[in-house]
């Protein structure tokens, strides 16, 4: 069943059941109040009859009940408009008044009356109406015992109303109740229809938005009033869309970078591969005659293959660290001696660029790091410094700050703008995309690996740079805990 009908039905049922219960309760209450009032009235009449029309005469030790029929007639006359019937019994089948009546009192009732209890009887005409004639017709009446001072039953006064039945008096109430029931049902139906529509509309709105998102449109926002759980759901939905949108943007960004890298990598690989192919073909056709030329070509091929291997390795390293597969083996090292070795190895490279190293490290500088990865970090940063500095100075400083080790690598190179600096840790990012001539790789992956490695070391990094002035990388390694 659709939600609309479910909701509608439940609202409707609640209204109908509530009204029914209220109606039945009210009717029952009115009925018993009616009976109570009638009995109270009849009791008053019975009292009047007993005091005004019944006399007890004693002669020769016997007690005789005398009824003043004239008075009784007057009383009955007076109450005729109220359809009051009076009977006076001296025995359960002995009727003193009216003389023609044959109505008798059953044994059970007579015993109760003997015990001094009044009896109240409800009209059973309703049952007669439905033809369930299982007992004689009774009017709503009251039987009041008349006892002497010894508690002996002298007579019973019965006053009944043949105002046919109280049910008739209740008919009006029933009719009014029925009218109000139908009015309430109609109004309730309208109200529940509006309420249900309101709820289902809100749900439909959510459903529409979900479909829109499923179709790839993330520009959805549901306005909410923070009123109920549905609003909370809509709020969560908005948050989910925001998250999806962000991951979609991130995905697109990654995809864009991956595409850029593929283009760059293909471009970079093509040059060495073409060179290698050219040399190999030359060799095949015996173009290199003298040995020196041959050696030079083989050297070139070796260099080009190293470049290709480095490109592949760098990417593998990056993927490994991203996947959490790179495990560090940290130990206490002497950063000064390691960096000295790195500088020695890179001296040639620096000289080619007209750069000079200035080593301001203390003789010994303890650092807690993975040996090979520490070298990788330092090498990458120094290589960049050489790459982006022509005829300048590259200064390396280092010091201890408490348990931490701070290493600073500064150059007097081309520097970077703020926006360039913000992106240097991204994979495949190169500030100058047009720099096609690859001096030392230039695939834009070096710093992204440095960043991953520093993260694994839980080390901090800070970069300050000014275009045309130079760049400084400050690394802070934490000591052993
Ligand atoms: N010392 C520096 N001075 C100026 N720019 C720098 C410096 N270090 C890095 N950059 C900028 O950050 C970019 C990213 O550096 P990264 O080391 O990741 O890539 P790359 O050096 O271009 O290529 P790769 O290191 O993979 O061979 C560089 O292309 C450059 O634009
Ligand atoms: Mg680099």
TrEMBL record:
Known EC number: 2.7.13.3
Transmembrane segments: 6-29, 177-199
SMART domains with a match to the protein in the record: HAMP, HATPase_c, HisKA
Domain of life: Bacteria
InterPro entries named in the record: HAMP_dom (IPR003660), HATPase_C_sf (IPR036890), HATPase_dom (IPR003594), His_kinase_dom (IPR005467), HisK_dim/P_dom (IPR003661), HisK_dim/P_sf (IPR036097), HssS/ArlS-like (IPR050398), Sig_transdc_His_kin-like_C (IPR004358)
PROSITE patterns: HAMP, HIS_KIN
Location relative to the cell: Cell membrane
Keyword terms, alphabetized: ATP-binding, Cell membrane, Kinase, Membrane, Nucleotide-binding, Phosphoprotein, Transferase, Transmembrane, Transmembrane helix, Two-component regulatory system
Membrane topology classification: Multi-pass membrane protein
Enzymatic class: transferase
Keyword match Lyase: no
GO molecular function list: kinase activity
Ranges of residues in domain Histidine kinase: 264-481
Catalysed reaction equations from the record: ATP + protein L-histidine = ADP + protein N-phospho-L-histidine
Domain HAMP, residue spans: 197-249
Protein name as catalogued: histidine kinase
Organism: Ligilactobacillus ruminis
